Amino acid sequence: MQEKKTDHFRRRLLPACAAMALAFAVPATALAQAWPTRPVKILVGFPPGGVADIMARSMAPLMSETLGQPVVVESRAGANGNVAADAVAKAPADGYTLAMTSTGIESVNPYLFSRMPFDPAKDLAPVAAAGRIQLFLTARPGLPASDVESFVRYAKAHPGKLSFGSAGSGSTPHLVGELFKQSAGIYAVHVPYRGAAPALQDLLASQIDFFFDPGISFANVRAGKLKMLAVASGQRSPLFPEVPTLAERGYKNMDYDTWFGLFAPAATPPEVRQRLNEAANKALANEGLRSRFREVGGEATPMTAEAFKGIARKEAVVFGQLIKDRDIQAD
């Protein structure tokens, strides 16, 4: 008798469990299909007119077409991307607030700042890569050097006399400059600026001697106002095919592009993050967007969120140690 009751209970319980499982599965599917129902905001962690800003504003209208909702871009610059990233880390985890920033938010800032207002590894989730920017070793016209070899010889003959600018302490152009100094065995004084644009202006005015340009000096190079000596990348730039890479000149560990991408609050549902990744990758396949990226020395890089995360992890090994060894601190 007891066995019959048990069998009867099981026959009633199994369909009920199946129904409950289906009920829990439906919300995730429904969320992926229904989202978004209102505008999506992208907070750019760097100044207006910079590469990150250009990337975000190029991607926004194309992502909007795919998502069916406006994608608006807002500047939230400061603290090497921390201001925008902190706002996103503390935003509701619903996919409506994203950060456009560099991989340095995870590979540099935790080592650079003595205190972080959030934990990038725990509070943010990568959504999609946007693109990578090559860095160009660019010098003032009056510097008596026409190539990397003569530049290094001059720097060694005048230790401490040269200065180089960057978009700020801990920015990729700064760290690549430090890596180059280390690799070439030269010494130059670092001058941090609040953005690459003011660094370029001082280079044109010969207030500094060189900098690793993130793609804003092209017009001045073509006009003969500046010298482009090399590319700190694994390949030559199609915009300046005659300019060699540092690796070609014997500096084998100088392949460091600046990577930018979209980040969301860590608890954002996976289904929403996947929709954002698909919308971003579709935008990055657009030839008009790819052409715009190339104008500033960039390359659109559609990929999975996991692959983008891997780039930050790889950078952290090199940059984290460099920041420690050189005692680099935030401005």
What's the quick description here?
With 331 residues, the protein is of the alpha/beta class. The protein has helices at residues 2-34, 51-67, 82-89, 104-107, 109-112, 120-123, 148-157, 172-184, 196-204, 218-222, 270-284, 287-295, 305-326; strands at residues 40-44, 71-75, 97-102, 124-133, 136-139, 163-166, 189-192, 210-213, 227-231, 258-265, 298-300. Helix content is 46%, strand content 18%.
Polypeptide structure, described:
The protein is α/β, with parallel strands linked by helices. The chain has two domains: 39-133 and 258-326, Bordetella uptake gene, domain 1 (D-Maltodextrin-Binding Protein, domain 2); 136-249, D-Maltodextrin-Binding Protein, domain 2 (3-Layer(aba) Sandwich). The protein is built from 13 helices and eleven strands. It has helices spanning 2-34, 51-67, 82-89, 104-107, 109-112, 120-123, 148-157, 172-184, 196-204, 218-222, 270-284, 287-295, 305-326; strands spanning 40-44, 71-75, 97-102, 124-133, 136-139, 163-166, 189-192, 210-213, 227-231, 258-265, 298-300. Strand 6 (163-166), helix 8 and strand 7 (189-192) form a beta-alpha-beta unit. The radius of gyration is 24 Å and the shape is globular. The model has no long low-confidence stretch (mean pLDDT 90).
